Amino acid sequence: MELNILHDKKLIYNFLAKNPELQIYCIGDLDDFFWPKTIWYALTDKDKIQSIALLYCGMETPTLLSFCKDNSEAHIILMNRIKPLLPRKFYAHLSPGLLDVFGSDNVIEYYGLNYKMALKKIPKIITDQSIKTLSSSDHSHITDFYQTAYPNNWFDKRMLETGKYFGYYAENKLIGVAGIHVYSAEYKVAALGNIAVHPEFRGIQIAYKLTSALCSDLFKSVDYIGLNVKSDNVYAIRSYQKIGFEIIGMYDECLISNK
User: Fold this and answer.
1) Which residues contact 12 (CB under 8 A, 6 or more apart)?
2) How sure is the predictor about 155, in pLDDT bands with cuts at 50, 70 and 90?
3) How far is CA 34 from each of CA 19, 59, 63, 92, rounded to the nearest angstrom?
4) Are 217 and 125 in contact (CB under 8 A)?
5) CA–CA dist 115, 96 (Å, integer)
6) Rounded CA gap, 125 and 128, in Å?
7) 194: helix, coil or strand?
8) Taking the complete model, does pTM exceed 0.90, yes or no?
9) Which residues lie closer than 8 Å to 111 by C-beta, 6 or more apart?
10) Model confidence at 101: pLDDT above 80
11) Which residues, other chains included, contact 61 with Cβ-Cβ below 8 Å and sequence gap of 6+?
C-alpha cells in the first residue's frame, strides 16, 4: 500500500461519505472556509483509498484526526507511515487503538474518551422570544460569557460569520449560547460546539431549547448534524439524547509529543 497526500476534494469526500456521521468534522474541513489549513494523508491500494488522516493546521498547535469503524488495520498502518511527517507536537482525535501507535510515553496530556453523537430525528420546534441569532457584533459579550460559563472551551470568532450561533437572553443579559465547530452548506454537514449556560441558570432547559432551535435551523441547509462530548459527561449526553442524538462512535483525545 502507498502513502499519498491528497489534493482532490472529490476523491476525499467520496471516501468520507461512506460514513458521513462519523466523519462530519473531516467532511466539514473540505469546505473552502477550512480547506487551506488542511493536509490530507491517505493509504491507498491500487489507487483505492483504504484510510485517511487529516492534519488541521488552523490553530497554533495542529490537530490530527482519523476515525474508523472497520479496517482499523489500514488506519494503524497509516499512522505508522505518517509519524515522521507530523509536527513535533500536536493534538489528536483518534479512534480507539490508533493512539497506541504513538506510545503512552509520548502522550503529554490525555483528555479522555469522547463520544461522537449524531442527530437521528427532527428536533422539537422551539418558540421562545429569548432566543436570538448571534453575530460578529456580539463577540465581546460572547467572550465575557464563556469566561464565566465555559472558560476552557475553544472558540473561533470567525464561526459567528456563519450565522449559526444562538444566544439565550434574560433581562438583556446573555445567559446561554449554542454554536458550531463545523458548518458546510456545500457538503451538508454541521458539528455543534461551544454549548454552555451561565451557572446561575442551569437546570431549567436553556441548553435544550438553544440546541433544539439551532438544530432546527441547521436542518434547513445540512443533512447531517453531529457533536463530540466527553464520555463521562452524563448530564450532557442525556440532554442530547432527549433532543434526538445517538452515540455512533468514540475517540481518544490527547496532546502528543512526536519524538
Assistant:
1) 6, 30, 40, 42, 52
2) confident
3) 20, 11, 13, 18
4) no
5) 11
6) 10
7) strand
8) yes
9) 253, 254, 255
10) yes
11) 87, 89, 90, 91, 255
Tens digit of pLDDT for each residue in 180-227? 999 999 999 999 999 999 999 998 999 999 999 999 999 999 999 999
Q: Which amino acid is at 99?
A: L
The C-alpha cell of 223 is what? 443533512
Identity of the residue numbered 218? L
Within the chain, strands assigned E span 2-6, 38-45, 48-56, 63-66, 89-94, 107-119, 131-133, 166-170, 173-184, 189-197, 224-230, 245-257
Q: Please, which residues have CB within 8 angstroms of residue 188's CB and are 6 or more apart in sequence?
A: 221, 222, 223, 224
| DSSP helix/strand/coil, 223 | coil
Across 15-27, average pLDDT: 97
pLDDT of residue 40: 98
Domains and CATH numbers, the chain: 2-113+253-257 (3.40.630), 131-243 (3.40.630.30)
Residue 114: the pLDDT is 97
Cell numbers describing residue 225: 448534524
Quote the radius of gyration of the chain (alpha carbons, Å): 19
DSSP 19: S
CA distance 142 to 144: 5
pLDDT (0 to 100) of residue 157: 87
The pLDDT assigned to 71 comes to 59
28-66 pLDDT, tens digit each: 999 998 999 999 999 999 889 999 999 999 889 999 999
| Cβ-based neighbour number of residue 177 at 10 Å | 28
- Number of neighbours of residue 111 by Cβ within 10 angstroms: 14
255: helix, strand or coil: strand
AA identity, residue 202: R
